[in-house]
């Protein structure tokens, strides 16, 4: 990724249309005072955008509080790292671990955003067949790319919604690392809370949390069999289609099982019901003639 250091007029810098939703960090009074006294010592990160007129302009990728402080301090020019980047690279820089938007570093918020975005994309999509309410499901991996997430990272985010709300709160607060949280998915609720609180209290590593989970699995009480690759794929497909975390349990001995669907509001439940009705055989009107 080509990069250069340049002095840029602040009125040539625009906010990116790809930036995360939400409010970025503000410029503190101390930062504004420092800029007035010493100037802007830390460079911004921008990408070059050329207009049809040929005039060079720049799109802010990182450093919103610094730009705000420069404007409040009446600094006409600032130092910036200028890169040549496409939309995919720009979106990743804006959304992944961007200190300008602290909420974007919350994987639980990411998971809820992914679900809400899928519902929005589904509502905007045209019906697949005329006269029927069916709409083509938007692949969750495609939506994850809007946050700069890979397919695997996207599904890891969604699986976090199967955690107990108390454990989710620890993840959202940054107290429980993402890796440790993923290990706890599928554990009983009380076990999740106990291990999560211990991991935070003792500052356990991911491997230490994994070791505690394995100890539990080696206990004499019978543990449910690990899901097969087919069941895992089915869970992923159902979660993607319905836009909510889905768990499928199956006992090979009795040939019985259960399907659990998790939702967090009546709005989400209504969305699932609408998608199920739209996908039900014969839900559309019978063709004439």
Keywords for this entry:
289 residues, alpha/beta, five-stranded mixed beta sheet, two-stranded antiparallel ribbon, 12 helices, disordered C terminus
How are the secondary structure elements laid out?
Blueprint: E1 3-9, E2 13-15, H1 29-38, E3 44-50, E4 56-62, H2 64-72, E5 77-83, H3 87-95, H4 107-124, H5 140-144, H6 151-159, H7 165-172, H8 178-184, H9 189-202, H10 206-217, H11 229-242, E6 246-251, E7 256-261, H12 266-279
Parallel strand pairs: 2-4, 3-5
Antiparallel strand pairs: 1-5, 3-4, 6-7
Helix pairs in contact: 1-2, 4-6, 8-10
Write structural notes for this entry:
This protein has a 5-stranded mixed beta sheet with strand order 1-5-3-4-2, with helices on both faces. A two-stranded antiparallel sheet has the order 6-7. Mean pLDDT is 79; it is low at 281-289. The protein is 45% helix and 15% strand. It has helices spanning 29-38, 64-72, 87-95, 107-124, 140-144, 151-159, 165-172, 178-184, 189-202, 206-217, 229-242, 266-279, and strands at 3-9, 13-15, 44-50, 56-62, 77-83, 246-251, 256-261. The radius of gyration is 24 Å and the shape is globular. It is of the alpha/beta class and 289 residues long. Helix 4 packs across helix 6. Strand 6 and strand 7 form a beta hairpin.
